[in-house]
Each structure stands twice: as structure tokens, then as C-alpha cells.
Amino acid sequence: MREGVQRRGAFGRLVRNPLGAASLLVLALLVLAVALAPLLASQGPQAASLAHAFDGPSGGHPLGMDSAGRDVLSRILYGGRTTLGGAVVSVAIALVLGVPAGLYAGYRAGRFDAAASWTADLVMALPAMVVLLASRAILGSNVWVLMVVLGFLVAPSFFRLVRGIVADVRGEPYVDAARVSGLSDLRIVARHVLIVVRGPVIIQVALVAGLAIGLQAGLEFLGVGSGSTATWGAMLNEAFQNIQRSPVLLLWPGLALGVTTGALVLLATALRDALEDRAGTPPRRRRADALVPADVSRDDRAELLSIRGLAVAYARPDGTEAEVVHGVDLDVRPGEIVGLVGESGSGKTQTAFSVLGILPDGGHVTRGSVIVAGQEVAGLPERRHRRLRGTTVAYVPQEPMSNLDPAFTIGSQLVEPMRHVMGLSRKDAAARALDLLRMVEIPEPEQVLRRFPHQISGGMAQRVLIAGAMSCDPALLIADEPTTALDVRVQADVLDLLRRLQAERGLGVLLVTHNLGVVADLCDRVAVMNGGRIVETGPTDRVLRDPQDPYTRRLLDAVLDDAPPRAPWRPVEARSETA
Ligand SMILES: Nc1ncnc2c1ncn2[C@@H]1O[C@H](COP(=O)(O)OP(=O)(O)OP(=O)(O)O)[C@@H](O)[C@H]1O
């Protein structure tokens, strides 16, 4: 049901886009005219009367007659059947071969993937025109046969497209979750994978159809076609031979080819925009001053991070906005650890992302003020916000492994940002990277610098990310569930490390978490979030001991500290013996 709504939404966006509407209209008219050729043309495409050769337009023949006295309109319309039909054949064959093979190879990997990728690379390396000329010599000049060969030649483009996308999503947590929940591979592919490849494949269809039409016309123009069938390429060839006598004969097939391939390319562009939801103009970012409410005074605001009345909204496809954070006030002072707690979806991450200026596409700060180290960042242009990231405010993400690039060593991932942001030489940056790894207590730091992310543990990866966050000496650290992905013992080590860094460097820390244990352990103050609002804020001791807001009380009640302890686990045999 939801999918249906999305599909209608994409089509709606396509027809609302002027480019999409115009190209769809042109293609629909072309297909209609070609389908109705027997009704629109006054005679068949091969009916010739030499007496009327090169006649100009007349009542029954609005585009005139060609060199053999055949009706040009009729040949354009019937020729369109072969030209467009040939493109449909090529695309259909390419789809049937390329998409399932790409799905299977991308999802299953292994030997089939290796063999199919090798074959696809080989076919793509062949020059299409030369293969088509050779096929014509072997298989004959029938245009439909050549289009089948072309289908084989372009199938690898679908294969590689689909394989690449599927290989990317194969490792996504939601696909793993579907696997763990017992869904069959076929069902996972149908439900989770096809939807991801659908958009790019549709775009590729439009592009390949244009390519097939161009190649077919090129072959016919070179005189490689059968000559007996009317096609736009064959018409170009004949017109070219009589260019001195009647240049206008080049115009009609040239126009038909140009308009069709142009409409297909424009349709592909509009489809991409519609499927990626780019049709709607994103809401313009307002300047910082426009976002700050008039009554926000700077007197009572913390000097490191001070948020007042922050609201964040996402643009919906229908042009309206969904507000997900509704007027948040929050302060972090230098040397202070503030916990931002709340259940999933309460708006913690959106608040943190607003400070960092990394809200996802479609999300933007609609009102309020966010001051970081004295600078207003709400509505700040990306270029200026980027300068603050790393240097003034740094970020430690939730999932250490997925935040390290598997293709680069730990060393290069630490060194490059320092060279870029701090202007250090490679040697100095490498020395500093080593110091940083020592600072976060990584054993054998020299070796770790040379390792790739898959060669270190999750706990070590999180220490590396903390080292990276500290590399440019930030004043404020935003840590978003920094220990959630780690096991309990490693969690404690990472929390110890954060506490030590904060104490040694006077760092301000905004700790986003849903774990009240972590808050009790680490935070000086806590702000409790629910439904996009801060419902309670205060010193950690006070809030945990004497919560004022009913939501905070519920959150505390949900912690199972007072629950009766479970019986210790014993093996099954031991239990049955007792019984
Ligand atoms: N890209 C997005 N587009 C639209 N809405 C979004 C987007 N990202 C988040 N939201 C919405 O914003 C609200 C707050 O999300 P947020 O990620 O801040 O929650 P959270 O408290 O950090 O939860 P969690 O602990 O699960 O990360 C949610 O209702 C969510 O649906």
C-alpha cells in the first residue's frame, strides 16, 4: 500500500516536472502516430510512383514524395514502427538478461558473480558498431536480428548497474534483519532489493532505448540494413544520396530521430529527478538572523553551546513540512558533560545534527538560535559551518565500523584530515596521529596505524574515531550513542576514556544516549527529550533522584534496577535433575 502511494508520488512528480511532462507527451504522440500509421498515411510505405519522384507537399502527401515517388509521411510513420520496435526489442533483451543476472550476482556474489562480471566486462569491451557489422555479415541484414544482437551488447550495462546497487544493499542491516527473520532470498530480493534498483533501471531503459535508436539509424545510414524495410536510418541514407536535388528529404527522418532520442534523454533526466525526489525545489535556507527570534538575549547563554527555540523540519513530497523538533533550549558549558536522553525518535539526533550542520537532505532548521563558541550557526552556509566542524565542534558517531572507510588504513584516515584542516605536513600529521592513538590508549599504536578497519576490533575502532574527533583540538564534542554498538566491558572503557579526555582538556561534551546508566555514570547535567521537546533539564543527581516530569519518571521506571533478580542460568540437565 505504502509502495503504491510512493509510486503514484513519483509519477506525479514526473508529470509536474515540465521536462518530464513535455518528453512524455512527445513520446506518447510519437507512439500514437506510429501505431495509427495505416489511418494517418494515405498509402503504404513501399507504394512507389516514379512519375511523382521528388514531388513537393500536396493534399494527400503533406511531406512530399521521395526519390522513388513514395510518400514521405507514410515512410516516416511505418519506419517509426521498425525503429521504435527495434529499440523495444533491444531493451527487452538487455533487461531480461542483465537485470536478473545482476540481481543474482550482486546478492549471492561467489563464482556466478565472478563469471558474469568477467563476461560483462568482455562484452562491454567490444566495439558495438563493429560487432553489429560482423553480425550483419554472418546473420544477414534483417533489422530485427541486428536489434537482438544489440540487446545482447547492451545487457552488461544493466547487469553492472544492478549488480553494483545490490552488492551495496546486501550488507545493509535491514537486509540482514530480513534474513534473520527467516524470509527467503527470493522474498528479500522482491521486497527489499528490487525497490532499490527500480529507479536506476527505469532511467537506464530510457537511455539505452535512445542509444539503440541511434545505433540502428547509424547502421541503416551506412547502408548496412536490408534496404527493403522503411526505417528512419534508411530514409536518411536515401536522402543523403539526393542531398543536392532535395535537401528537405533529410529533414524529416533527422527530425524524427532527433526528437525521439532527445525526448528519451530528457525523460531519463526527469525520471531521475522524480525518483530521487528532486522535483520540488528544496526550501531555501534562511540566513541566521532570520531564524533567531527577537526575544533571544545572549546574557543567560552558555559560552560553548547554547541552543534556544530550535525547530527542525523536513520537507514532505507534497510541499508541506513535518516539524520533528519543536523549540529546544539546551546549554553546554566548557568542561561540562551534558546528557541528552529520550526514547528512540524523540529528536536527540536531529538536535545534535543541527549543531553540526549535517541534517539529512530535506531537513533544515526552521527557527531558533544555535550558538557554538560564540558563533551563531543556525542557517549558517555549509561552507562556513564546515570550518567549525573538527576544529570547534567534533563528532563521535554511534557505529564505529561503518564510519571508517574500509579502503584506507587507520593512519591515512587520521592523517589526511589533519593535513587538510590544520595544514600539517605529512610527517607531522603522522607523528600527531601516533600521539592521538596513545592518548586514547590503543596498544601498539604504530601497528594500528598501518591496519585497515577490518583488522581492528569495534572498541578499538571507536577509540580511533575518538582520536580522530580530538585531532584538531575541538572545544565541544558531540557523541551520539558512542557505546551502543559495543559490548559492555568495552563500553565502560570508552566511557572512561571520554571522562578522562573531558577532565584533561576541559572539553564540553554533549552525550546523546538513551541509556540512563551512562547518564548517571558520566553526565553533570541531563536534558530529557520527548516528542521533539525538552521536558526536563537539571543536574543529573537531582533529575534522576527527584524527576519532576511524568515522562522522566516513566523513563526511570523503565530501568529494571528494582526488578527482582533472575535465577542464575544452569544447564538443562542440571535443571531436569533438580526437577
Ligand atoms: N531524514 C528524515 N526525514 C524525515 N524525518 C526524519 C528524518 N530523520 C529523522 N526524522 C524524524 O525525526 C524524528 C526524530 O528523529 P531522531 O533521529 O532525532 O530521533 P532520536 O531521538 O535520535 O532516535 P534514535 O535514538 O532512534 O536515533 C523522528 O520522528 C524521525 O522520524
From TrEMBL:
<keyword id="KW-1133">Transmembrane helix</keyword>
<protein>
    <submittedName>
        <fullName>Dipeptide/oligopeptide/nickel ABC transporter permease/ATP-binding protein</fullName>
    </submittedName>
</protein>
<keyword id="KW-1003">Cell membrane</keyword>
<keyword id="KW-0812">Transmembrane</keyword>
<dbReference type="GO" id="GO:0005524">
    <property type="term" value="F:ATP binding"/>
</dbReference>
<feature type="domain" description="ABC transporter">
    <location>
        <begin position="307"/>
        <end position="556"/>
    </location>
</feature>
<dbReference type="InterPro" id="IPR027417">
    <property type="entry name" value="P-loop_NTPase"/>
</dbReference>
<feature type="transmembrane region" description="Helical">
    <location>
        <begin position="193"/>
        <end position="215"/>
    </location>
</feature>
<dbReference type="InterPro" id="IPR035906">
    <property type="entry name" value="MetI-like_sf"/>
</dbReference>
<dbReference type="GO" id="GO:0005886">
    <property type="term" value="C:plasma membrane"/>
</dbReference>
<keyword id="KW-0813">Transport</keyword>
<dbReference type="GO" id="GO:0055085">
    <property type="term" value="P:transmembrane transport"/>
</dbReference>
<dbReference type="Pfam" id="PF12911">
    <property type="entry name" value="OppC_N"/>
</dbReference>
<keyword id="KW-0472">Membrane</keyword>
<comment type="similarity">
    <text>Belongs to the binding-protein-dependent transport system permease family.</text>
</comment>
<dbReference type="GO" id="GO:0016887">
    <property type="term" value="F:ATP hydrolysis activity"/>
</dbReference>
<dbReference type="InterPro" id="IPR017871">
    <property type="entry name" value="ABC_transporter-like_CS"/>
</dbReference>
<keyword id="KW-1278">Translocase</keyword>
<keyword id="KW-0997">Cell inner membrane</keyword>
<keyword id="KW-0547">Nucleotide-binding</keyword>
<dbReference type="InterPro" id="IPR025966">
    <property type="entry name" value="OppC_N"/>
</dbReference>
<feature type="transmembrane region" description="Helical">
    <location>
        <begin position="118"/>
        <end position="138"/>
    </location>
</feature>
<dbReference type="Pfam" id="PF00528">
    <property type="entry name" value="BPD_transp_1"/>
</dbReference>
<feature type="transmembrane region" description="Helical">
    <location>
        <begin position="144"/>
        <end position="162"/>
    </location>
</feature>
<dbReference type="Pfam" id="PF00005">
    <property type="entry name" value="ABC_tran"/>
</dbReference>
<feature type="transmembrane region" description="Helical">
    <location>
        <begin position="84"/>
        <end position="106"/>
    </location>
</feature>
<keyword id="KW-0067">ATP-binding</keyword>
<dbReference type="InterPro" id="IPR000515">
    <property type="entry name" value="MetI-like"/>
</dbReference>
<dbReference type="InterPro" id="IPR050388">
    <property type="entry name" value="ABC_Ni/Peptide_Import"/>
</dbReference>
<feature type="transmembrane region" description="Helical">
    <location>
        <begin position="250"/>
        <end position="271"/>
    </location>
</feature>
<comment type="similarity">
    <text>Belongs to the ABC transporter superfamily.</text>
</comment>
<dbReference type="InterPro" id="IPR003439">
    <property type="entry name" value="ABC_transporter-like_ATP-bd"/>
</dbReference>
<dbReference type="InterPro" id="IPR003593">
    <property type="entry name" value="AAA+_ATPase"/>
</dbReference>
<feature type="domain" description="ABC transmembrane type-1">
    <location>
        <begin position="80"/>
        <end position="272"/>
    </location>
</feature>
